[in-house]
Amino acid sequence: MTVALWCVLIAIFLPYLCTVIAKIGGRFGLRDNHDPRDFLESLDGFARRAHWAQLNSFEVTPAFAAAVIVAHLAGNAELVTINVLSVLFITSRLLYIICYLADWATLRSLVWFVGMGLIASFFFVSI
């Protein structure tokens, strides 16, 4: 299995890291799981930003996974290039989460654009 495919697995689990941060950082700490969606929507501050980072991570992961798969299937890109782009994407997502939690809105948006550019790069290197 390639580094890029391992990065897809990491990307799949990153939203759940944000979920744990949101639940622990909530008003009352960890809550029972009878109504977790309502609980997450009721958060504010740091915990709410962790929840929003979780939602964004769920949104972007399918695009990243598809880009990695397309790059592998196209066969035109060097494997090392695909692997490097994947590691850079995971790095950008970690930075994105940090920026979201720290409430650095402008930097967060810039990091988001970098991540989206990295996703597009998989297609360009596969041409």
From TrEMBL:
Task: State the Pfam families in the record.
Answer: MAPEG (PF01124)
Q: Where is this chain's protein located in or outside the cell?
A: Membrane
Write out the transmembrane intervals: 80-102, 109-126
Which positions are tagged coiled coil?
none
Major localization class: membrane
InterPro entries hit by this protein? MAPEG-like_dom_sf (IPR023352), Membr-assoc_MAPEG (IPR001129)
Q: Which GO terms describe its cellular component?
A: membrane
- Cite the entry's keywords alphabetically: Membrane, Transmembrane, Transmembrane helix
Protein name in the entry: MAPEG family protein
Native source species: Pseudomonas frederiksbergensis
